[in-house]
């Protein structure tokens, strides 16, 4: 933290991760690593024709943030620290920056971008707000602020890379247009092979048909179970671990995972910045890219990760491959902390990583005036 | 027609095809080939939790049938034929048999099987009713009553074969579990290749990306167009002709169609009866199977059909491959005609081709008594 930031060193930062399973909030301090506390709101933020519902997000975020701030303030008092922030000019409980990562930000984030910065300034006195696509918070959680690439795999699959000048994205197009190699893709390929065995078609796997029957019941009844559901990608992805479990003994299942590994590696190769001498962290890995794997997909372990390492070694020789420990919530907190410290090096982008211009240029004296009215 | 049937030779038969685009009805005579007249009810028959709505089907079928019978009766009077049926003991306007082919019959036809035979006996005096899966009427329309196989391709893809002892089915499991090589499959593969080109991933086709943009607009907005729709398979299939149009000059598009052809051939090979000496029509093709291609998929023409003939020649050497002229409505009329003449040789099956037992054993004196009450 060599850059001078406007936030007091004892001030707080908030990281937020809004996804299909709800809203997670982490509170930290500008100059301390890691979160002080985190909380979860189980209700996913609503989306409507106007995009992600900014009012619904705030209705959950603000009470959660106030509760986290109260807990932190109590803890600081107990440690006799409550005057420390004041000594540096920041009032106790000041939130210097908030970073919110949301699924669907790229296509659905218009209302968030219009309404949230002003509303947060009004409600919490926050001076700096960043709105990020969930792939960007995944990147920040997995890679930090270095150049590199992240592959975020779960039900879907997206790869995101940056040379710190611009973002490169590959796939993440959903289960009908891509997400190649992700959980739904693997599960679907496994069920396809099972149905082939059921029919006596070439490419069938008796082992996967056994697993299909164990999980879903009679094969011919699976269409009637699957198609009426609104969470079809999740149902498909639920079969992916069965494919992994069969891969040791079943060549069809192993072939599916090798193909998935190929698709994931292709996406990573498309976005990983070229080895460019002084790019990246000098002295680490000879300046070649870092590829971080993150998300539930890679909890499948070696049946997928072993062929993936091979495919990545082929397509990106010399790249360092890591299985990330930091999740998107960690990434959101990192972005908030960098923003508070005036040290955010990840590229700005209207939908990938949005920071209102007045914050960047220091014209944040009275952000409330510039805010759109909150609807809601 | 060497079998003696109970129907007067001048009696009528009805064929019905119930699908996603509505209900089609054809009227014919037992001993004359072809339909006398056909009509279309544009409203698709409703399905609910109880299956295909038998009442809704009858509400459309009965007026359509009566209108067709009136038209035929008027035409026969004008030709001075109106006494001909009576001379053979069948009253004018007698409907000897009805065959109804319906999409979803296998999984959703319970109410049809329970309610329709009795209701048709009551309303039209019909003595023989057959209820068939749409794949069976497609078979009857394309192959007739000979052993062989049909591939019915449209948005989906299903193969059905018989040795006249039992039915063999392959695929037709819908766009997430199979339908491999069908219209939605081809369109999806084409869009996947287009998105790969957009991302700079391996396997991309710039030609298909151009077509995607021409048809749907900016590539990154396609997910937002596709996923909210309820007719996603049809949207995917709408891109299949674009893949065919690119196949002449674009190796990726050509590869997709060759892969589709392979999947279709695999399904046909799984169901085509083995060459078995005296099976089939003696003297035709040396006793090997007949594979008929039917449905809108094959209107794509040579870009798909040429590689398909090659794949079929490899997997089913000696099989006769035909592009069928008879559609499922023709097939339904053929089944009704054979049923009326006591000459239905296609295998019975509870969900594939259902003929109530009392009709088979001649105990149809009072079918009304055995009918379930018709519910609205």
From TrEMBL, chains A, B:
Residues 14-312 form the ATPase BadF/BadG/BcrA/BcrD type domain. InterPro entries: ATPase_BadF, ATPase_NBD, Euk-type_GlcNAc_Kinase. Pfam families: BcrAD_BadFG. Coiled coil: none annotated. SUPFAM superfamilies: Actin-like ATPase domain. This is ATPase BadF/BadG/BcrA/BcrD type domain-containing protein.
């Amino acid at each position: 933290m060599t850059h001078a930031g406007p936030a007091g060193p004892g001030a707080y930062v908030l990281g937020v991760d809004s996804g299909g399973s709800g809203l997670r909030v982490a509170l930290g301090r500008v100059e301390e690593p890691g979160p002080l506390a985190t909380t979860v709101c189980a209700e996913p933020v609503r989306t409507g024709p106007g995009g992600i519902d900014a009012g619904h997000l705030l209705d959950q975020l603000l009470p959660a943030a106030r509760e986290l701030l109260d807990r932190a303030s109590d803890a600081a008092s107990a440690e006799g620290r409550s005057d420390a922030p004041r000594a540096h000019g920041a009032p106790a409980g000041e939130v210097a920056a908030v970073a919110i990562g949301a699924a669907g930000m790229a296509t659905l984030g218009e209302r968030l971008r219009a309404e949230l910065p002003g509303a947060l300034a009004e409600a919490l006195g926050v001076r700096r707000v960043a709105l990020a696509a969930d792939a960007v918070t995944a990147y920040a959680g997995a890679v930090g602020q270095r150049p590199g690439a992240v592959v975020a795999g779960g039900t879907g699959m997206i790869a995101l890379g940056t040379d710190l000048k611009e973002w490169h994205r590959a796939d993440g197009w959903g289960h009908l247009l891509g997400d190649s190699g992700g959980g739904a893709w693997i599960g679907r390929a496994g069920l396809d092979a099972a149905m082939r065995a059921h029919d006596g078609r070439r490419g069938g796997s008796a082992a996967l048909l056994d697993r299909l029957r164990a999980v879903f019941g009679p094969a011919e009844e699976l269409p009637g179970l699957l198609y009426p559901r609104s969470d079809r990608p999740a149902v498909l992805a639920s079969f992916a671990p069965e494919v992994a479990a069969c891969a040791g003994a079943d060549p069809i299942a192993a072939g599916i995972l090798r193909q998935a590994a190929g698709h994931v590696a292709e996406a990573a190769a498309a976005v990983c910045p070229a080895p460019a001498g002084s790019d990246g962290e000098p002295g680490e890995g000879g300046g070649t890219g870092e590829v971080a794997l993150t998300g539930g997909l890679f909890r499948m372990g070696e049946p997928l990760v072993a062929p993936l390492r091979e495919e990545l070694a082929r397509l990106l020789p010399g790249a360092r491959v890591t299985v990330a420990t930091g999740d998107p919530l960690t990434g959101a907190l990192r972005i908030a902390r960098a923003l508070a410290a005036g040290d955010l090096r990840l590229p700005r982008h209207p939908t990938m990583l949005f920071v209102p211009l007045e914050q960047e240029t220091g014209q944040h004296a009275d952000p409330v005036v510039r805010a759109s009215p909150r609807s809601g």
